[in-house]
Design a protein that fits this description.
By secondary structure, this protein is mainly beta. It has helices spanning 2-6, 30-33, 115-121; strands spanning 11-14, 19-23, 39-45, 50-51, 56-61, 67-72, 77-81, 94-96, 103-104, 109-113, 127-131, 137-141, 146-147, 153-159.
């Protein structure tokens, strides 16, 4: 009985996009590779759009549409940064389907991405998925190389 009371709730974080899973240290940007933003993984997309990896709320949507932050019901904050050096695209190549403060569900469409345009205009399409408050969380990674939107479990997080 007491084990149920003291067992930590684990937040399941699913793939927001289909592609190849990479370690953050493989991201050619020190902000991500040195985990300055927090723990996480990166995905080399195979196309498709960005979908919600959790049930939660849209915390922040970048004015340039290249990044979105979500907060889960347990307070875990997740940043999805689409490509590298994409802030300079000033929103071109992205179509947003949600707004700040909106409740979202796992698998819900967040942002449609024109990957061909991003490949031509940005330095990389690699997409980091980072738990920005990971200093307050225990993060565990799943051992998989490929992921499918809304199906593949990438990470779990629980409060320390």
């Amino acid at each position: 009985m007491f084990t149920k009371l003291f067992r930590k709730h684990k937040l399941h974080i699913y793939a927001p996009i289909t592609g190849e899973i990479l370690s953050l240290n493989q991201v050619p940007d020190p902000v991500f590779s040195q985990k300055m933003m927090g723990e996480g993984v990166a995905i080399m997309p195979k196309g498709g759009s960005i979908h919600s990896p959790i049930d939660g709320t849209v915390l922040l949507l970048s004015g340039t549409k290249h990044a979105i932050a979500l907060r889960s019901n347990d307070g875990t904050e997740i940043l999805i940064h689409i490509g590298l050096e994409t802030v300079s695209l000033k929103g071109q190549g992205f179509t947003v389907f949600v707004k700040e403060g909106e409740r979202v569900s796992i698998g819900q469409l967040l942002i449609e991405v024109d990957w061909d345009y991003i490949r031509e205009q940005a330095s990389s399409v690699i997409t980091p998925i980072v738990i920005t408050n990971s200093d307050e969380r225990e993060v565990q990674y799943e051992v998989v190389k490929e992921c499918i939107i809304g199906e593949t479990l990438l990470m779990t997080a629980s409060s320390k």
